[in-house]
Design brief:
Arc Repressor Mutant, subunit A, 3-stranded antiparallel β-sheet, globular
């Protein structure tokens, strides 16, 4: 138990991973959508997602060419963190911008995703 908790807290100790979690509270997203909002390189976003997934906070599933990510509701830590984070950071300017951009982020409009469909 202690090892799992340590992994979760280490995963939360990064601002970009917190930004990802706030977005995933709103909707499942693919790497390209997350990358678009964060403005980071795709490999960097993938690394952050792997850390969150290894900690058991998020899960992924395939949808054709895309891998979608969402909070993992059956994980006790993820459930409690999601509930706690609902009220956290909502007035933060960066988070506000991220959530607005996440609403607009659509794989159907992103160049990297359209390339995959061909």
């Amino acid at each position: 138990m202690l090892k799992a908790a340590e992994k979760v807290f280490k995963a939360l100790a990064d601002k970009n991973r917190l930004r990802i979690l706030k977005m995933l509270q709103r909707k499942p997203m693919c790497v390209c959508e997350i990358r678009e909002v964060l403005g980071l390189a795709q490999p960097t976003v993938s690394k952050h997602l792997k850390i969150l997934k290894d900690a058991g906070i998020i899960e992924d599933w395939q949808d054709g060419l895309w891998t979608n990510y969402q909070l993992k509701p059956q994980n006790i830590y993820a459930k409690k963190i999601a509930a706690s984070m609902e009220g956290w950071l909502n007035e933060d300017g960066c988070i506000t911008q991220d959530l607005t951009a996440a609403k607009k982020a659509s794989r159907l409009k992103l160049y990297c995703c359209r390339k995959r469909e061909k």
